[in-house]
TrEMBL record, chain A:
It comes from Mesonia maritima. The keyword Phosphoprotein applies. It comes from the Bacteria. The modification 4-aspartylphosphate is found at D61. The keyword GTP-binding does not apply. InterPro entries: CheY-like_superfamily, Sig_transdc_resp-reg_receiver, TCS_response_regulator. This is CheY-like chemotaxis protein. Keywords: Phosphoprotein. SUPFAM superfamilies: CheY-like. Residues 10-124 form the Response regulatory domain.
UniProtKB/TrEMBL annotation, chain B:
InterPro entries: HisK_dim/P_sf. The keyword Transferase applies. This is Signal transduction histidine kinase. GO terms for molecular function: kinase activity. It comes from Mesonia maritima. Keywords: Coiled coil, Kinase, Transferase. Residues 161-188 form a coiled coil.
Length: 124, 286
């Protein structure tokens, strides 16, 4: 994928469920948002590829076996990775919501499933 | 100044000393002793009997020149005292020595032509019958009646005051005992309550454990079921605006995969909860 046009911003989808990443990818495509989407079912790989792609946004799941969302955010802080993080989780827990406020990186907290409308509201 | 005037003056001076001493007395015994010591300064007598007639708490004070005492039980009301109570008219009576001895309940000196003066003083709930036996050598005269009246007034008021004070003290003491008893009972109740609380805690322990287990199950349901369910909802949402190919190639297989996953989770959950239920009912049977 090499061209000379100004490149579209990169978005990381980080969720251990490939189907969830598929759904979110489709939603972004359908909402006609001009971005380059990269999906990861292992959050460790997302961290490894961060510097190379420097994503503008990350849609981050909380409940993952290798590294949970909180640990992922801590790693970002440690490595000084700056990117707008949207937490996307299936359980709407008030405790998690409060905890998310402690991170400056986190700009939003959404519960699954997302919709085209929600996607547009995130990237506008 | 004639003889009578100077006699009155001396008597009233004696009475003023007596009443100041009496006011300091705090017990029946003290009041009695003060009265005994001063009686001889007021009038002549061989024997004085003050019968404090009251239904609730009768008393009888006896004074003779060599001794004095008081009775608080088994007090006899003499015939002449009964007459006095009824008529309230003072009596002066010559007595034979034998009659005098019948009334006198203390040791006294020999009498010559004994005479009795008796009078009843009415203080509403209490009647005081005073009888004085005198004789030629120690003569109680009619001019002594006035000082006797004043003396009995002062004496009665003192006795009443002491008795009220005693009653108050006794009531306070009873109240204190009652308070101590209440305090004791409260502590007993508290200890019973605490014991009951401990028993309830022990007995409800397995209920608490079961509740905790149920909460665990509930949490695992919400965690394990919500995630695939949200995927199904997401896929259905996509399906609405998808092409036939898209639906057949990706959405349907993913729906299928997720539904099977959900089915698996349910099967495991049912298996696990029935195990838990068996375990719990075994515990309850114990």
């Amino acid at each position: 994928m090499t061209n000379n046009l100004p490149e579209d911003p990169v978005i990381f989808l980080v969720d251990d469920q490939k189907i969830t990443n598929f759904i979110n990818k489709k939603l972004i495509e359908k909402s006609k948002i001009k971005v380059k989407i990269m999906d990861f079912i292992n959050p460790i790989n997302a961290l490894k590829d961060f510097s190379k792609f420097e994503p503008s946004h990350i849609l981050l799941d909380l409940n993952m076996p290798q590294l949970d969302g909180w640990q992922f955010l801590e790693e970002m802080k440690k490595n000084e990775f700056y990117s707008k993080v949207i937490i996307v989780t299936s359980s709407d827990s008030p405790i998690d919501r409060e905890r998310a406020k402690e991170y400056d990186l986190v700009i939003d907290y959404k519960t699954k499933p997302l919709s085209e409308e929600v996607m547009r509201s995130i990237f506008e | 100044m004639n003889f009578n005037q100077s006699k009155y003056r001396i008597t009233y001076e004696a009475f003023s000393k007596y009443s100041s001493k009496l006011s300091k007395a705090t017990t029946l015994e003290e009041a009695l002793e003060v009265t005994y010591k001063n009686l001889k300064y007021f009038f002549n007598y061989h024997y004085v009997r003050i019968n404090y007639i009251s239904e609730v708490s009768p008393l009888c004070f006896l004074f003779s020149v060599p001794e004095f005492r008081y009775l608080s039980k088994e007090i006899e009301v003499f015939e002449f005292e009964k007459d006095l109570l009824e008529r309230k008219v003072p009596v002066v009576k010559q007595l034979s020595n034998a009659e005098a001895q019948k009334y006198i309940q203390l040791e006294t000196n020999a009498l010559t032509n004994p005479e009795m003066y008796a009078s009843c003083f009415d203080y509403n709930s209490v009647n005081i019958c005073v009888s004085i036996i005198s004789d030629e050598n120690r003569k109680f005269g009619m001019d002594d009646v006035e000082i006797l009246r004043i003396l009995i007034d002062a004496f009665f008021n003192k006795i009443k005051q002491i008795r009220l004070q005693n009653r108050l003290e006794e009531k306070n003491k009873n109240l204190e005992i009652a308070l101590t008893e209440i305090d004791h009972k409260n502590r007993e109740i508290e200890s019973i309550v605490n014991t009951q609380k401990a028993i309830i805690k022990v007995r409800t322990k397995h209920v608490v454990e079961r509740n905790e287990r149920l909460i665990d199950i509930l949490q695992s349901i919400s965690h394990n079921l919500q995630e695939p369910l949200s995927r199904i909802l997401g896929l259905l949402n996509l399906a609405e605006n998808s092409t036939q190919d898209e639906f057949k190639m990706s959405i349907l297989p993913y729906l299928n995969e997720t539904a099977l996953e959900l089915d698996d989770i349910f099967k495991n959950l049912i298996k696990k909860s029935s195990e838990d239920i068996n375990l719990l009912s075994e515990k309850n049977d114990q």
